[in-house]
Structures are given as C-alpha cells and as structure tokens.
Fold these 2 entries.
Entry 1:
Amino acid sequence: MAILNKILLKIVTAVVSIFGSLVLVFCIIYLLPGDPVLSMLDPSVATPEMVANLHKELGLDQPFYLQFLHYFMSVLHGDFGQSLVNRDLVLPKILEHFPATLALTLASALVSIIIGVFFGVLSAIYRNKWIDFIARLIGLFGISMPTFWSGILLILIFSVFLNWFPAMGSDGWKTIVLPSLSLGFVGAGLIIRMVRTSMLEVINESFIVTLRAKGLSERAVMYRHALRNALIPAITIIGLNIGELMAGTVVIETVFSRQGIGRIVADAIMAKDLPVIQGVVFFSAIVFVVINLLVDLSYSIIDPRVRRAN
Amino acid sequence: MKLVNQTKLVAILLVFLLLVSGCASSSSTKNSSSQETNKEDASKPKSGGELTYALATSPDSLDPARSGLAVAVRAFRTIFDSLVVQAPDNTIKPWLATAWTVSNDGKSYTFKLRNDVRFQDGTPFNAAAVKYSFDRILDPKTQAKNAVALLKPYQSSEVIDDYTIKINLATPSASFLSNLSQAMLGIVSPTAAEKYGDQFSKNPVGTGPYKFVSWSENADIVVQKNKDYHWGPANVENKGAPYLDKITFKIIPEEATRIGSVQSGQVLAAETVPPQNIAALKNDSKTQLLKVNTIGLPYTLFFNQRKGPWNDVKVRQAVQLAVDVDSIVKTLYLGTYERAWSPISPGILGYDKSLEGETKANIKKANQILDELGYKKGSDGIRVKDGKPFTLKYVDGSPNREKRNDIAVIVQQQLKKIGIKVEINITQDVATVIYKNADYDLYGNSQVNSDPNALSAIYHTRTDAEEAVFKGLTGGSDPELDQWLEQGTIELDPAKREDIYKKVQQKIIKDAWIIPVYVFPYTVAASKEVKGITFDSLGYPLFNDVNIER
C-alpha cells in the first residue's frame, strides 16, 4: 500500500508541475514584446481594419485572464489552437512530428549511455593511467563542443569525405546516426564524469573489500557489484539529461535538416507563430515531467533500498 | 587604436576564411573550368529522372495569393503559370494570354486567352478562372499577402466570353503587366481553391509544367511532371512537358549541411551558396555554380528621417561619405556580390548606370561637414552637440541573413572614424521595432520586384492613415519626388518612364536618403549531371528545360 501511495503522490506532483508549466508558458508568451498580428500582415497592404479584425479573430482583444481561461479550457479538450502561419492545428502537428524527435532523443540517450558508461568505468578502473586521461578528455570534449559545430564536423567527415552516412533527412536509420552521435556526445561527457566519480566512491567502500577477500574475480567485483551501485546516480543524470537532449534537438534537427518538434519550434520562433511555440513548449514540459516520473519510479526496480525505505 | 581594431577584425576574418577554404578545397581537384551559365549542349536532352533541389528555408505557403516569401515562389512557380511573362529585356510576352489591348485612358486591359489549357485537376482554364483568381486575392477571407500589393490598382474583371476578359483598374498603371507576370499573381484552379479553402496552400492546383504531389513540413515538397503541358512561356526553350519526372525540393536551412549534401551527392542542386564556398565549388570537378543577380530594390540602408538629426540632408551626406561600401562588400562577400549604387538594381527598367562610381568614401569631407554643423569631438573621439553625444541607432533583423549583421558591425567601426557612436540592435521583432515604433536611425532591407514602380511604396510621402498602420522605411517627404513617382506609376511610354525614374534615383542618392549596399545574387550549386537550369527575369529558377545526364 505504501508504495501505491508514493506513486500516487508522485503522479499528483507531476500533474501540478504540468499545470504550473502551462501557466508559466502562457505568461511568458503573453509578456513577449511585439504584436504577432503585425508580423502576420504585409506592411505595404495592411489597413487598420485588417489589424483590428485579426486581433478579434485571434481573441487578442480580450483581457489576459479570459485569454488564459480560454486557452486552458481548450487544452483540456486537447485543442492547442491553430498555427498563425498556415492554419494547421497545433496538437496534431506536434503528434505527427514527435515520433521523429523521440527517436532522435532516445538514440542520443543510448549513445550517451554507451559512451558514458564505457569510458566512465574504464576511467575509474584505470584511475590516473593514460586510459583515464583519454576518457576524461573525451568527456571534456563532449561537454564543451557545441552541437552545431560537432554536427557540421561529422557531416564533413562522414558525408562529404567518406560518404558513409547522409548529411541530412529523416528517412531510414542511416540518417539518425550522425545527429544522435553529435547530440549524444554532450550527454556522454556528463555521464563519464558521473560514473567515474561514483565508481571511485563505491570501489573504496568496505563491501568491495569483502567481495575481493571472498576471492571473487576482479571482473565480477567491478561489473556485477561496483558498476550496479555506481549506476544509480548516473540514472538520475540520464533522466535529467533527457530534457537537455530534447532541447538539443532544436539545434540538431535544424543542422541535419530532420523533421521533428525541435525544428517546428525553431521555425515558429522565427515566424512569431505563438500558438505553435506555446504548444511545443507545453508539450515538451509534459514529456519531461512524465520521463522524470518514470525515472523516479524506476529507482525502486533498480535499487532495492529505495523499495525497502517505504 | 581605431586602426588596430580594424586590422584585428580583418585578421580574424582572414584566418577564418583560410580555415574554411582550406577545409573545403582539399576535396576539389585542379579543374579550373568554372561554369557560370548552364545552357544545354547540342545533344538532345534526356527525359526522365528526378531532380533534388535544396531550399534554404521553409516556404510559408504554396498558395500564390497567400505567400510572402521568395523561397515559396521558387517552389510554386513550377505549379502556376501567369497571364504574361517578362522576357530578360523587360518586354512583356504572351503566356496564358495570347494578346491584349489597353484602353486609351490606360484603365482597362482586354486579354485574349489560350483555349487549349487545362488545370492539373482537369478544370478548363478560361476567363472565369482568371476573374476568380484575381477577385480571390481581394477577398479579405483569403488573407492574401504580397499579391494584394502586386494586383493594385485592380478593381474588377468582366468575362466577355470564355476566352476574353476585360480587367478594370482604378487608375492607369504602367507596372500592371509586369506585375501580372509574377508568380504571386499566378492563375489558380477555381475548383480546387473552392474545395480546399484555406488548405489550398497545401493542395495547390494551377496550369504549370509540374503538378503538386506532397509537402511534408520541414522535409520536402514534391512536384511531378504535368504530361499535358504544352504552353511553355517565351523565356524557356522547351514549351512542352518538362523532361524531368519529378522535382523534390528539400528544405535544408543550415548552409554547411546544404552544400555538404550536394558534395556528398545526396541532393543534385542547392540554392544560396555561402560566399566562402563559391570559389571552392567553382573548382570542383563534380559541381557547377550558377549565379544570377536578383532584381528589385537592392539591400539598402534607410535613414529614419522622422528623427533629428537625420532630417538634415547634410548629416545624412556625412554618413554616406563615411561608410565605405566597397570595403564592406569585398570583406564580407569576397567578390561574389556586386555593390549597389542606386535605389533599384541593374536590369530593372530605368536603372541609372551613371550613378555607378559616383559615391566614394571620403572621411575627411565627412568630418568637415560635421565640424561645420557644430558637432565637436570629445575626449573619447565621439562628437557632442548641445551636451549630447552623437549616436546612431542601427537596427537589423535576426537571423543573420546574408551576413547583414556583420555589415552593422563594420559600419559601426567606420562611423567611429567620424566620431559617431553606433549602437547596434539586432532584433527578432522587426515588425514592432521598425514598422510599428520606427525606433531606428538606420535600417536595411531589400525587395525582389520587376518594376521601378516599387520605389513608390518606399519613397513616396505616406499619409497619416498609412503611417498609423505601418511606419514607412524612410519617414521622408519630398514634393518633387512625389510628383515624379506619381508620373512614373501612370506613364505608359517606356522611354519617358526611364527618364522619370533616372531623376528619382539621382535625387534619392544626392539627398542621401539611403546607402545602397549590395545586389543579392541568387546562387545554385549543382552536380554537373544537371543541365538546363535557367532563371526568369526576377532571378527565380525555371525547371522546364532541366534534364539529368548520367
């Protein structure tokens, strides 16, 4: 029962966070300087009537609280509004493009976990040896390199010179390789550091000494016991990192000309397409909250201590 | 110190260029036969194949009436035809209309239409379709964009018979036929426009050489060959159905990716080649570079004459003398863009060639003018008058299109030499800053247009009602200029029009209303297999003659 209560509490918190983000997103968009109607009309032909009509049509002539109430009720009914640029319904548009972004996010997460855990463990085992330095250097690179730069570098090497992978597009698995490498590398940098630190902490704990004294092979000690314990903090990082990755898709999808909600929001910002910006940001907030909820819940599966604590 | 700063800037730019060109040229071989034009060989063009053509930005709409972007025209020009076509020498030739007459008062045009044309959905093309297309632009429900301005001073159409239409204008207009040749006034299928309503932009149907297949947002737009096509315009060789089976316009905003996609063979052609790649691509044995200057209003810096001291012609002239446009264009575009000298670009009717070479940078004279006006240099080198430092608010838009933000930085450096402090404001919200609040001293813009009448919208005095909706770019007013611009709008004799617009150009430059900067060249990098890409008089690509040789 206790665990059910805990899950329920987490879900309630998640719903409150989502509502909070809705309010925040709406306020930010409302406070943005500039009238969206002005950027929709052509300066050489617009008349005052056209401006007024469009204001009315979009409900922009109503007071703030009414606008918010209207938006909130629509969102409850699954209506995120219409694009100002081409009249598309926002939610179906997001749902259509989200799978591509999700695939990229997950592929990038996979890349960062594989690279991160691999080098993190090596780094801890061979502490202060040359392998450790190389692994840490890779981590440093990952964190410091901007994705738009590493992305272009990857295109130059793997598309233009080697012709192994396509430079752009979103059809087929080949197109996801370069973008997920570029994006995943950032997360990898963080994970290398995290895994290394927590591995080093665990290695020095007394239960490891006991295991070694019992005559377990070094490999078993490291991978079955030390790594498992070291992964718990790493998982938190990965969960939070998903948010970073989703934000990163805004840049990466543009660089690699992929479809996805990152690209949609980038275009919407350029076009001042407020309903679309609002919709994508709010939708991303929901995804982020849900993923972190799942991460929270997954602790109890990975770490028995969390379960027992209940 | 000033010198050091500028040397540093140039040095950084040079190092960057070396890096870029070093990276790029390592892939090219020593084949120096650069190709600037792309005329077909004597060999017969092959039919079939698919052209992939990378666009730099997403089109806003494929409905000619509702689009406001040049990139959209590049895609929907393949789908829609116009009544007339403008030949490279600016004469108007028949297209969907075979002949026309103009009434004596210049206020009505009677067009004879082709009787053998069908829309891609099977709807017959006739006078009713033309009337529908134009009336639709005026209908507020359509929410038409640039088409509204192009159609002015259109009032109504009368269907005389199936293939004769009379178009009535509110006032005579010398630019009307030229405007009719633009893709944004292309003729739409009335059946499809009625059926799809505001979704017509995603289901466009016209009479063009290609018919629409699909548009997946941020990915691609696909059009396929219109087999029945046999009414090609005068500016293409192949009047029949196109050779290509299909064109896929891929949308690739990042320039390095776009060019990389051509080099890696993922697409066959890509538009808007960054200057630093042009030299390398010209020397690449597998690619060709096509270049055409767009016409209309070149990229121009406008003074906001609503605010002092910019209402004083002398102050504007001082700035005009201090800005070294030659060095800006050479530094940023490496000889790939041409410098602009006039408020209109070369190639447009009435362009005044005598203005070329007239404006030369002269810091000494600029300083002298400002000294005479009582602006005293302070200890920090910035001029002061009446206790106020001399500043200039330079506004530019984001994203950094065609390195325009970099122009702002160089102008800042250059004006420092005459003691003007330039404050740069790069904004995403040009609509508010410029057109609503007019909160700028200098702002740059450009426009693609086929007729010098485009000057009227910018340089004619604006009424209070007009200013209430959107502020004009200059804020200036000159009765003489107004009179000439009004004459130019209605004068039907081309020779007289040329004289009028020459006077207009000279006056605008002499009174330093603007600083013209560059003429934008539309560039395409294409694989050598692609033959027959040509351009219309506005610089938009045409795909009627394109064929792929493998």
Entry 2:
Amino acid sequence: MPEQLTRPEERYQATQSTWDKIAESQEFKDLMATKRIFIIPAFLFFVVYYFALPVLVGYAPQFMSTKVIGVNLAYLFALSQFFVAWLIAGLYVRAANDFDRLAKDIVERAVVAQAGNGKGGR
Amino acid sequence: MANISLIMFLLFIAITLGITYWASKRSAGASAYFAASRQIKGWQNGIAVAGDYMSAASFLGIAGIIAFQGYDGFLFSVGWLVAYLTVLLVIAEPLRNAGKYTMADVLAYRLKPRPVRAMASLSTLTVSTFYMIAQMVGAGALVKLLLGGYVSYNQAVTGVGILMIVYVVFGGMLATTWVQIIKAILLMGGTILLSILVMAHFHFSFGDFFGAVGHVTYHDAKGATVVKDFLQPGLRYKPPYGPLDLISLGLALIFGTAGLPHILVRFYTVPDAKTARNSVVWAMVLIGSFYIMTTFLGFGAATIVGPDFIKTHGGTNMSAPLLAQALAGNIFFAFISAIAFATILAVVAGLTISATTSFSHDFWTNVIHNGVERKPGEEVLVARISAFGVGAVAIGIAILLGPTANVAFLVALAFAVAASANLPVIVLSIFWRRFNTAGAVSGLAVGLLASIGLILVSPSMMAIDPPTVTGTARHLIQAKAWFPLENPGILSIPLGFIGAILGTLISHEPTSQHKFNELLVRSNTGLGSEKAGAH
C-alpha cells in the first residue's frame, strides 16, 4: 500500500469540496500551525540578524573596527552569519521531519478516501 | 602558458560534450527534457544549485572586490549564502509540491493562466538574458586575456554561445545538471587548494595572515603610497549613501535569490519536496564554505599579489588567477583560469535552459496555445529551437557591447528584478487568499519596470566620465545620477509588493479565492505533486 501511495499513476485530482474539506480538517490545521510556529520566528530571526550586519557596518564603522582576537568585530560578525545560517538550516531540517509526518497522514487519508468514493471523489 | 590553458579548456569541453551525448539518449519526453525525469538525487541537485549560483561574478568578481576594497567585498559573500534561508524556509518545497516546470506553474494554479504566464515569462526571460550577457562578456574578456594569441573576443563569445546551445539542445536538463555538478566540484577543489596555498604562504598562521591584511600597501590614482587596513569597513560603501546601498544590496540578495528562475527550475529535477529541501541544505554547505574561502582568495590577492600588480595585469577580475600564478606558477594559473571558464560555461547553460523552458512551457504552450500541445513533443521541440534564439541574442549583444563594456550592473539588475517582480507574486500567491490575477500582473509589471527604471537612473548608468574613458566603457547617460544607489532593491521591492497588493484590491476575482484551498493543500502536503519518471 505505501508503495502505491507514493507512486500513483496520475496526478491526484479532486473536486472543490474535497479540497475545502481537507483544508478545513483538524489535521491540516495542525500541520499549518506546526509549520508556522517554526518558520515565522526562524524567518524573522534570520532577517533581523542578517540586516544587523549592513546597518552596524554602515552606520557604526568605527565601533565595528574594534580589534578582537587579531581581527575585528566587523569580520567576526560577518563570519558568524555563515554559522547562524547553517544552524537555522539544520534546525529547520529537524523540525521539517514533523511536517513530513503530518503531511503524510493527510495525503494517505485523502488517497484512501478517494479510492473509497470511486475515481475523482465524485 | 596559453598552451596549458588551451589544453585544459579543451579537456573540459570534451568531458561536457561526452556528458551531453550520454544525456541526449535519456532526454526524450517533456519531464525528461525539462526536469531530468525528476530523478536527480538530493546531494546531486545541491551541488548543481551551488554550481548554478557560484558564477564567475562570485569567483572572479568577489575575489577582485575584496582584493581592492577589502572587507566590504566580503559582505557580498555573506549575503549570497544567507539568501538561501529564504529559499529553504519559504520557496523550495511549496514550489516543488505545486509546480511542474516553471515558477509560473504555481501562479497559474488559481489565477488566470494566460496573463499571469505571459508576464512571468517576460520577467524570467529578462532576468536570464541580463544575467547571461554579463557572463558572456566576462567569458569573452577572460578567454581573450588567457588565450590572447589564439582566440579573439568575438570568437570566444561565439564559442561559449555555441557550446551552451549544444548542451541545452541535445542534453536538456540532465546534461545541464551534470555540467553544473562537475563545474561545482572543480570550483570547490580549486578554491580549497588556493586557500591552503594562501595559508601556507603565511606559514598557516592566522595571526600573520590577518596581520598582513591590516597593512595592504598600494598606490592611489595620483601615485601616492597608501597603507590601508583591509579589514576596516567602508572602503567601498562610503557615506552618505554607502550604508543605504549596502542594505539595498542585502534586500536584493535575500529576496532575489528565491526568485532567480535558473535556481527555481532546479527544484523540479528532484523526486519530491523533502529531496528539494535536502538539496538546499547541500547547496548551503557548499555555497557557505565557498564564500568563507573568498576571505583567502580576496585578501590573499590583496596581500600576496597586491592591487598595483593586479591593476596592470588584467584588472580586478584577474585577482584569483593572478594569485594562483604567484603561489604556484603557470600551470596552476592555467588550471584556475580553466575553472573560471568552466564556471561561466555551466552558468550560461543553466540560464539558457531556464529561459527556454519558460518560453516554450509558459509562453508557447500555455499563452499562445491555451495549454494544449498541438502534437506530442511540441513543447520540447519549441524549447530546443528557442535555445538557438536565446543563444544568438546573447552572442549578438555580447559582441555589440565588447570586452570593455561596463556589465557588472546587469547582475545587480537580475537580482533586483527577481526580488521585486518574481518573489512578491510567488509569496503572495502561496500565502494570501485574496490575491488575484490583476495583482500578479501588476506586481510583476511594477517590479520589473521599477527595477529597470531605477537602474537606468542609478550611478551604474548615469555618471560623468572623464574623456579618457571611451566606447562602451562609458556610462550610458553622461549626467549626475538621479537615484543615488547602485542597488534599487530598497525601493523596487516595496514597489513590487505594493503593485501586487493594490492590483489585487482594486479588482475582484472569486475563483482565485475559491481555488486557494487547493493550492494551499497541494503546496503544503505534496498531495498530487509531479512524480519522478522512469529513465
């Protein structure tokens, strides 16, 4: 069964009411809430952290030129951006395992329901 | 020296043509031709995304900017990686789940397909063409410099153009992907080697390295000796408008990368959204490592070769190859130059296939013929024919502009259009129920026009040159710039969003709202997404 679910012969098609029903189901709302709770804060954090760099470097160049361990604040802050980006990407991949699990349930239900109702869910 | 370069160029060309021949037998059918049958593995696509993204502008360009303007050049490097978080968090998975071959597929789901696809196709072709011309002029200038005795600029541009047409026409997305993968591995290898050699020069002491970076000596335009701390911010972005330009550049990168058509099409080559996600992570590892190493390339060139020498031996873009020559002689110089050439070739091939896919799938099949292929295989045939058109246009314009043309702004323009036109409509169509056709069309149009318009009146196009600057190196409009920033993003991105939102609010389209649930479910769950085909 799972093999068949992941490789259906043609694209899943459904009526408007089926799409509405899935979109309004509790499972789908849970998926969206789970995604939002990670993605929105992660997005806002990286945007703020990233734009802090041009703002600080642009408007406080003297402060950012302060020497620290052989280099300066500006270089260290720029370098930190790479590691922060990698960290967020890593956390996202971990969080996304939950998204995949929730989405898989929704897809399976939809395909089973369609098979039960006859082709096209009509 | 030119002999060794030539042999390495020819070797790369031979390998890539072999791949094209292999791929040509596996490119029958639309899904195979446009999306490599959606069978590319996550890590392979990740390397290919990195390959598509690490253009000559980054390899030669950023190394050059850091070699001449120090720390400010490194800020480009940072933005080019961080931008991938937008791709990862917002764009890649919904696009893979809901689309087929192009970004317009996602827009066309619930909007009126014809006007939306026509505008999206126009925007895609604009971005690809601008980006391609910048690469072609760079390739021509590079080849001329390296193989001066053998190949002229026009021959070099024509050669690059013909090769990219061959890859795309015969090998489709599969060949383009593998050309990209090989090039990315070569580029990473060359960069790692170069970085190790730079550190070996400083006896693997970061203290010595950054110490030297703190005292870069060169001569200014008047001939006076200058000693500068190259880690100091502000050598490129000076007040009063520098900081604002820097923020504007950041905006274009963060929002533009996720709207670059040649990056977006890559996510259709993998089997599902999870693989698309993993491929972004692979790409981020490679791209991040590469851009961190621009520290060694750029500062290495500044300290070991020196801006004075680079200026008189080919200019800023030659910083990385000249560094290779200084560290390990002519063979390494030829090797790094061959990598730069491979980079350009692979990137133009990627741009060509995204342009031809959009032309044939969006414009020909869906706009002109209402979504119906008149006979099987027409879409692929039209794509193949249009590759000749795209190639001819790119060759023609690059030859007209000539090797000294000021083309750096074309890359900024491509990012600005992607960020101001493409990204707002993709995001709004996925996330905003009320969004409709009028909003998409006006968003794309406003974003496109605002980016082009603002670049036209920016310092990239408007400036007063001294009489010593001649030909196409001169600025197009000899007057003081009306818009003070080189990067229009800070104004054009909000304008793109406003255009899309206002266009939506002044019109009413119930069907787009009804069909939102379908797009929402498809893009978030992958229900009914396009499946991988058999080889």
